[in-house]
Give the backbone structure.
Amino acid sequence: MDELIKEIESRRARRALSATPVPREVTERIIRAAIYAPSCANNQSWRFVVVDEKAELEKVREALTGGNYWARESPLVVLVCTRADLDCQLSDNRNYALFDAGLATENLILQAFKEGLVAHPIAGFRPTEIKTAFEIPEDYTLITLVIIGYPGEESHLSEKHLEQEHGERVRKPEEEVVSFNRWFKTGFTP
């Protein structure tokens, strides 16, 4: 892996976070990195709600599912939203809004990592509650929450999460997710 960008190679979705606030200038750099992502026809279909005030963070915390108990420590959460008609809608049902929001989110995550932060996207939340709390229009999709904070103490983590924090980084074998010049071998369904 000598040729990969350092941030891609070493970034992990950690869960041990500190409640130390993230300075506004750092938050602004993270968001700027996100909005510089490429997008279909430069539509920039992503919408971010940056949550860093105590009362607003509590609204997010109340909507987390049990497995994301660790995210309650986070001093910064970014809500990632889009709406299909904000982006390219091409043949064969190729709607780019989710793809482009994903590209922007990856930029956000990598910039956060470069800033010394943990940035962990999660799916374990009740989207209707968060959309209501933050007045996100019903026709928008709340794709993910990115939980952001400085690395912190891990004594509150479950045994499972401690294992994941210290375990080897696991990836599927390339031949399971990559095929060159044609679809995967007959009989193999990735």
In short: Strands lie at 47-51, 76-82, 89-90, 94-95, 118-122, 141-149. The helical segments are 6-10, 24-35, 54-62, 97-114, 127-133, 159-166, 174-177. The radius of gyration is 18 Å.
